[in-house]
């Protein structure tokens, strides 16, 4: 069996690795000349700047890669034991994420804190409930709107009022085994001393990991080679959703699909698409127009990152700016200097909710806005050193993501992406490993 993989971001790289570990034939195509997708580490003014994820969690899946590729020496542990701040009423307040912080923070009033304690009395998500409705019902308005909602939705740039539980936070809670009470689950994990995996990165950034993966599997990965179309192999029947894996049809050649690139056309038995949904839609149009139409429904939110130099020196993981703070034009800050000891570096995020002209503004304008808001929030001046915009950007997990229910790829077409699994790097590695297991086991159409 040969598996063709479209894209060599974290999903594609983890998939190539897992399939090769199973002894499968795999060929991957990556449009860019560098691997990693949104994982891109750069050196700017002698500092490591991450254009995508700023840090990782040291999950078992990541740890096994670190050992296999000898990356222990450059592994950098982050300082986890620091607060996250919320910008509220013109001031920085601690987000209550531990029992101690919940008692001491002045983000929530004493009555608001009592209301939070009633959370176990309120049941699990209701059908069609939004993230905002669910969190307000469970924790009360103050906690839901001042930090719980924005903490979840902030990275995606979507208002919690536009996110349905069943297609967003509800899936996260289910994965974490939360049935009725979030608070009781947190207390249970504190009692059992179960720790969240530590924050990590590498001396030269997360790019070290994707470079190591790409080099280790260089024979199977074609960089700088965009796939232009995916087509069913001539003469084979159209889409088949009944799980017939197509092997053993008596013809000898079991290939079901062709991956077309500028240089060659490669025949494969199975295709795994790892690109964002709008690109997947274009590529899969010749295979199944209905599937392409479903993929086109998923919305993404563009996001801008401005990297700032400042001698602020505060101790914390970052700042959350709730969407209700409508006088502020950024949605949050990562304090890279404090988390990973990155010299004087801070990352500011802008999305269309916090800064509607995001896509039309020049880099210079974004830099100015971010530096101005940084100073307003922290009191310290800052200088922009780099700007980056992502488009299509972050999966929105808004109401358009009900399209997840209608994704019915024909036999031999698979997805390994945020529209079938969790978007974070640990989720991408888990998704890739599980799919490789299924493909190698021959149990997957
Ligand atoms: C700003 C930002 C911050 C984030 N922060 C965190 C974080 O702190 N922690 C965390 O765990 N996760 C974080 N994430 C999420 C995580 O980084 C991504 O979800 C994950 O890296 C996505 O990997 P992927 O391989 O699925 O997709 P992508 O990285 O999008 O990879 C898809 C690949 O497909 C390639 N491609 C596109 N078209 C074609 C084509 N026609 N032919 C061949 N190849 C093609 C692209 O070039 C790309 O390399 C963040 C993401 C962003 C953008």
From TrEMBL:
Recorded hits in PANTHER family, A to Z, give:
PROTOPORPHYRINOGEN OXIDASE
Record-linked Gene3D superfamilies: FAD/NAD(P)-binding domain, protoporphyrinogen ix oxidase, domain 3, Protoporphyrinogen oxidase, mitochondrial, domain 2
Q: What Enzyme Commission number does this protein have?
A: 1.3.3.4
Q: Which cofactor does it need?
A: FAD
Q: Which UniProt keywords apply?
A: FAD, Flavoprotein, Heme biosynthesis, Oxidoreductase
One matching Pfam family, short form?
Amino_oxidase
Q: Which pathway does the record list?
A: Porphyrin-containing compound metabolism
Select a single GO molecular function from the record's annotations and give it. oxygen-dependent protoporphyrinogen oxidase activity
Instruction: State what protein this is by name.
Output: Protoporphyrinogen oxidase
Q: Which organism is it from?
A: Halovivax cerinus
Compositionally biased spans, kind Basic and acidic residues: 231-244
- Please give the residue ranges the record annotates as the region Disordered: 230-254
Q: What class of enzyme is it?
A: oxidoreductase
User: Source taxonomy lineage?
Assistant: Archaea, Methanobacteriati, Methanobacteriota, Stenosarchaea group, Halobacteria
Enumerate the NCBIfam families for this protein: proto_IX_ox
Q: Which InterPro entries match?
A: Amino_oxidase (IPR002937), FAD/NAD-bd_sf (IPR036188), Protoporphyrinogen_oxidase (IPR004572), Zeta_carotene_desat/Oxidored (IPR050464)
Q: Which residues form the Amine oxidase domain?
A: 10-421
């Amino acid at each position: 069996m040969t598996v063709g993989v479209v894209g060599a971001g974290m999903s594609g790289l983890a998939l190539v690795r897992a399939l090769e570990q199973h002894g499968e034939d795999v060929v991957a195509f990556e449009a860019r000349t560098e691997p990693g997708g949104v994982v891109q580490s750069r050196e700017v003014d002698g500092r490591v700047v991450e254009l995508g994820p700023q840090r990782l969690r040291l999950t078992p899946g990541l740890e096994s890669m670190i050992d296999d590729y000898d990356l222990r020496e450059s592994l950098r542990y982050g300082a986890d034991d620091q607060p996250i701040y919320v910008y509220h009423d013109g001031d920085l307040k601690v987000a209550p994420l531990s029992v101690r912080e919940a008692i001491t923070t002045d983000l929530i009033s004493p009555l608001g804190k009592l209301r939070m304690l009633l959370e176990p009395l309120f049941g699990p998500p209701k059908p069609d409930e939004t993230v905002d409705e669910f969190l307000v019902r469970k924790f009360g308005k103050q906690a839901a709107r001042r930090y719980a909602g924005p903490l979840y939705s902030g990275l995606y740039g979507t208002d919690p009022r536009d996110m349905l539980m069943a297609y967003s936070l509800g899936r996260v809670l289910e994965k974490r085994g939360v049935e009725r009470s979030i608070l009781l689950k947190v207390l249970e994990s504190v009692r059992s001393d179960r720790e969240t995996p530590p924050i990590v990165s590498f001396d030269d950034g997360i790019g070290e990991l994707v470079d190591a993966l790409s080099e280790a599997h260089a024979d199977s990965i074609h960089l700088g080679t965009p796939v232009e179309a995916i087509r069913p192999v001539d003469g084979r029947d159209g889409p088949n959703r009944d799980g017939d894996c197509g092997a053993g049809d008596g013809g000898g050649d079991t290939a079901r699909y062709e991956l077309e690139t500028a240089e060659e056309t490669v025949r494969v038995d199975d295709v795994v698409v790892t690109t964002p949904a709008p690109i997947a839609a274009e590529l899969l149009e010749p295979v199944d127009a209905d599937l392409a139409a479903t993929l086109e429904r998923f919305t993404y939110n563009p996001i801008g990152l401005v990297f700032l130099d400042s001698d602020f020196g505060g101790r914390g993981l970052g700042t959350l700016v709730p969407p209700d703070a409508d006088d502020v034009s950024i949605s949050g800050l990562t304090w890279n200097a404090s988390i990973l000891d990155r010299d004087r570096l801070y990352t500011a995020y802008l999305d269309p909710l916090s800064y509607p002209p995001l896509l039309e503004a020049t880099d210079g304008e974004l830099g100015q806005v971010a530096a101005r808001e940084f100073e307003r929030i922290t009191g310290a001046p800052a200088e922009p050193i780099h700007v980056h915009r992502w488009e299509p950007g972050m999966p929105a997990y808004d109401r358009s993501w009900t399209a997840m229910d209608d994704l019915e790829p024909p036999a031999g077409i698979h997805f390994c992406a945020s529209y079938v699994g969790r978007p974070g790097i640990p989720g991408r590695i888990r998704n890739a490993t599980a799919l490789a297991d299924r493909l190698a086991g021959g149990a997957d159409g």
